[in-house]
Amino acid sequence: MIRLRTLRMAVTYCLLAITAFISIFPFIWMAIGATNESVDIVKGRLFFGTALLDNYVKFSQTFDVGQLFWNTGKIAIVGTLLTLLVSSMAGYGFEMFRSAFKERIYQGLLLTMMIPFAAMMIPLFILMATFDLVDTHMAVILPTIASVYLIFYFRQSSKAFPADLRDAARVDGLKEWKIFLFVYVPVMRSTYAAAFIIAFMTAWNSYLWPLIILQSNEQKTFTLALSSLGSAYVPDFGVIMLAAILATLPTLVVFFAMQKQFVQGMLGSVK
Fold this sequence. Notes:
By secondary structure, the chain is mostly helical.
């Protein structure tokens, strides 16, 4: 019996190890490729090279790396904070207040998730052009502020929020905005952490809408820079690999810094 259990554990860990290796191998290959020249990558070389600095110099000559980080970071951070504010307030309102039309409005919001973004691109572009926001970062941020998915996520998480705590705050004379700000937000911090990671990664990796609305090189984001490198007549794969690593690092830092809160938030932990 013990031998059978040991054999099962060994098989399980072997399968997990193989799965983990398959999952992280693209990133390992990307890191190795960033240190090699394009011709070595095409040949399939799987050893670290000496072209890392050369690849960075080529990339920095094509794009202003600092400007790319600033543009993408500004869009991601500002967009994420506004998304968390609006979505959490909406989720709180849908769960905490009672109204005859609340569920119909909520169902209507959920139905909008079925509309593909491609169907909204032209109306959105016309709207942004009307307000003279074309080729601005604000045009990238505004359409992402109200995330239906995060509204749904916050409402479902708010079901675990203790009603007695809210009622006690009301008895103490706190107004609703104070209850939200000083009671709800601290209690739901794990939910906010998980939502922050989701919103940040979505904003950082956004490609299609920035491609349409951002037209000058000074406003471009990392995803657009990567697209430009990949669409060159003779793409330099070493530079592309290096740029991909630089574009991936901020999301990795955010995720690993908040992974504990992310797991608690996704499991519905309330403290």
